[in-house]
Amino acid sequence: MQGPVPTLFVQRGDGTDQEVLWEQPHLTVGRDPSNDLVINHRLVSRRHARFEKAEVGFYVRDLDSTNGTFVNGQRIEGAHLLRNNDEVWIGDTVIVFRDPEATMKGTPPPVARQRLFEPQEELRVDTKAKEVYLRGKLLEPPLTAKEFQLLELLYRHKGEVLSKDQIAKGVWDYEVYDYNAIDALVYRLRHRIEADPSNPRYLVTVRGFGYKLLTYGPERA
Fold first, then answer.
1. pLDDT per position as a tens digit, 144-191
2. How many beta carbons lie within 10 A of that of residue 216, not counting itself?
């Protein structure tokens, strides 16, 4: 006789909630309609994650997704053991795991929905620690001082187009600016943060106006 089964409370960014009884050995999650749990969001991979039952407990496994699977705000690698009321974040969706052996009477605690609406950045700048993270990993070796100053400036204005005059005033401390020096600095920074500097996904040129920083990059499966 089968004992009590876990429950997954699925809470999406658009407000459509779903309660799923986890009865089968595993549940797949992703953007593809063939998944057991479909999340149709641009930050979700086609095959994103899988919930797995084992003799020793219940797990969620990231399937090498582009934008990651997070448990209680921390990005995971491979399989992660779940505990009662753990929150699994995938794209704009939070999935609350309820362990039947630990379930208490009453309504599940509310998930802080505001944490859903800001997707996880692929590129993040820690201004205090002077560190740069690409898709959750620390950029090594560190940027030079000028490279970091440029990236920090663009990060403070992410999504905005900054002219070369604005960049010059924000990065250099003298009044006469050599625009070639700005272009060279952009070139060097791209070679540090871009997988393909000739086709940048983060530090983008807006022809005739300047540069802007995109911290999420274009959609990828």
1. 999 999 999 999 999 999 999 999 889 886 665 678 889 999 999 999
2. 17
Q: How many CB atoms lie within 10 A of CB 191?
A: 10
Cα torsion 19, 108, 73, 25: sign: negative
Per-residue pLDDT tens for 96-149?
999 877 644 444 455 544 444 455 678 989 888 889 998 878 899 999 999 999
- Overall size of the chain counted in residues: 221
Q: Which residues contact 215 (CB under 8 A, 6 or more apart)?
A: 121, 122, 123, 124, 155, 158, 202
* DSSP assignment of 21-79: E--SSEEEEESSTTSSEE---TTS-SS-EEEEEETTEEEEEE-S-SS--EETTEE--SE
How many Cα atoms occupy the beta-carbon half-sphere of 77 within 13 Å?
3
- 113 token code pair: 């929905």
Q: How far is CA 141 from CA 117, 155, 207, 213, 215, in A?
A: 32, 19, 30, 21, 20
Structure-token match 């797995």, residue found: 52
